[in-house]
Request: fold
Amino acid sequence: MKKETGPGRRLRIEGKTWLIVIVIVTLLALPLFIRSVTFFQFMILILWYAYLTTSWNLVGGFAGVLPLGHAAFAGIGAYTSSVLFIHYGLTPWAGMVVGGLLAAIVGVIIGAPTFKLRGAYFALATIAISEGLRVILENIQKIGGFEINGARGILLPLKGHSPIDFQFLDKRYYYYVILAMLAVIFIITYRIARSKLGYYLTAGGEEKEGAEALGVNVAKCKLIAMAISTFFTAMGGTFYMQLVHYIYPRGILSLDLSFEIAFIAIIGGRGTLIGPIIGAVLLVPAAELTRTYLGGSYEGVHLMLYGAVLMAVMLFRPRGLMEPLEAFYRWGIQKLAPEQSVATDEVK
Reply:
């Protein structure tokens, strides 16, 4: 086994640090130079998908399982915050936390039995649960006396520019909110990936029996990851509700959204830190343009695009696009400073 040491390794670390700084400064400065509402709507969707995919990656990537029903938790967050706002006047900023806690509880309840399933059976179970929740919401008018209007959905009362009510007339506010949310979930994922929980999740996902033989409670670790993942996914659902002001079961709990989240993570690099964000940056613009120009005539064509890319990635880059991008980054660093070669030591 070889371990990188010396100036080459320092150069790579410094290069990554500067790259992250440049990306952050660019994202923060964009609203100062661009005024287009369409552009910000586009950027908000990219960041939103990156946020949802990073949340999904905690359980779908590091824990080594394949949940295909995460749209259900986004729906729980959207409906919970909306009902509390309409009927109790509770600000959606608080409602999104309540929705997140409710989704985490539901996620743990679902995960406890389904984590015992393997392979396609677990994925099919999550699909069934998500679709079951969607059908229920489409066919009932009230929950506990609260109007949810079945398939018609919920329309939020408009308050104009009201930050306390999570409503803004300028899209730039939504842009900064989802950017902050993405930064939070990324930092949490980063800390988990480098903690004991992250190592246990990876070990349990790759070799469950071996991890359990070493004393790792794999089921408990996966439930913790599921709770965190569903909590933040639900908060993403609340954000989307506040962005569009209207929600209905097929719009937020559809399998389309669940599949998109999983596809983006797998294509970008499942179980990596940057992979889900890379996947969103590359795939969401292509999907949105396809949906805009072809969606009226060919509904679902964006999912066909995802499927085609997914098959190509599985055939040629099974670990996702993050692997060739990382190799390209290393090649670029070596070209920029060829005199600082990477020193290696043999570690026995």
Residues 38-253 form one domain. The longest strand covers residues 2-5. Residues 46 and 284 are 6 Å apart (CA to CA).
